[in-house]
């Protein structure tokens, strides 16, 4: 009986003890448990991936809605700006036309005032010239008679 035989016997006893203690079943159970754990992790990863895809789709939809809303707001702002621009243009034109009309009215009034002033000056000059002519040609007796006749004429017109 050499050492090889005893090593063989020791190996068989060792394998028997391992079989008696059910080490292969424990190893198989441990492997099964590990396989179940890996399977659960894969399923969880798959669920997380699906949730991530749903979130991505939702955020893309929200982004498109936000872009659409921004475009609508921009369009509305452009329309409002155009309306405001037209209103400002109309108000400016109205203001300019009113100011022009006021300026024309002031010019007409100034012309009328100038004409009246020239007429008044002409009347004053005519009166002064008539006084000088009458004063040179009429003496005091003729002026007294003229005054009396004018006074009589005035009385008849007032009554």
UniProtKB/TrEMBL annotation:
GO terms for molecular function: proton-transporting ATP synthase activity, rotational mechanism; proton-transporting ATPase activity, rotational mechanism. Residues 28-94 form a coiled coil. This is ATP synthase subunit b. The gene is atpF. Keywords: ATP synthesis, Cell membrane, CF(0), Coiled coil, Hydrogen ion transport, Ion transport, Membrane, Transmembrane, Transmembrane helix, Transport. NCBIfam families: ATP_synt_b (TIGR01144), PRK09173.1 (NF006611). Pfam families: ATP-synt_B (PF00430). F-type ATPases have 2 components, F(1) - the catalytic core - and F(0) - the membrane proton channel. F(1) has five subunits: alpha(3), beta(3), gamma(1), delta(1), epsilon(1). F(0) has three main subunits: a(1), b(2) and c(10-14). The alpha and beta chains form an alternating ring which encloses part of the gamma chain. F(1) is attached to F(0) by a central stalk formed by the gamma and epsilon chains, while a peripheral stalk is formed by the delta and b chains. GO terms for cellular component: plasma membrane; proton-transporting ATP synthase complex. Its main location: membrane. Belongs to the ATPase B chain family. The chain crosses the membrane at residues 6-29. It is a single-pass membrane protein. F(1)F(0) ATP synthase produces ATP from ADP in the presence of a proton or sodium gradient. F-type ATPases consist of two structural domains, F(1) containing the extramembraneous catalytic core and F(0) containing the membrane proton channel, linked together by a central stalk and a peripheral stalk. During catalysis, ATP synthesis in the catalytic domain of F(1) is coupled via a rotary mechanism of the central stalk subunits to proton translocation. Component of the F(0) channel, it forms part of the peripheral stalk, linking F(1) to F(0). The b'-subunit is a diverged and duplicated form of b found in plants and photosynthetic bacteria. It comes from the Bacteria. It is found in: Cell inner membrane; Cell membrane.
């Amino acid at each position: 009986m050499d050492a090889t035989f005893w090593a063989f016997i020791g190996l068989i006893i060792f394998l028997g003890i391992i079989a008696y203690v059910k080490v292969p079943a424990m190893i198989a159970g441990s492997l099964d448990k590990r396989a179940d754990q890996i399977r659960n992790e894969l399923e969880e990863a798959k669920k997380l991936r699906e949730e991530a895809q749903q979130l991505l789709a939702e955020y893309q939809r929200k982004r498109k809605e936000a872009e659409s809303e921004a475009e609508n707001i921009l369009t509305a702002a452009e329309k409002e700006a155009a309306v405001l621009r037209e209103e400002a243009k109309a108000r400016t034109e109205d203001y300019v036309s009113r100011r022009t009309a006021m300026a024309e009215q002031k010019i007409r009034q100034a012309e009328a005032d100038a004409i009246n002033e020239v007429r008044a000056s002409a009347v004053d000059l005519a009166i002064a010239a008539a006084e000088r002519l009458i004063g040179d040609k009429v003496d005091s007796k003729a002026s007294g008679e003229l005054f009396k006749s004018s006074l009589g004429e005035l009385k008849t017109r007032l009554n």
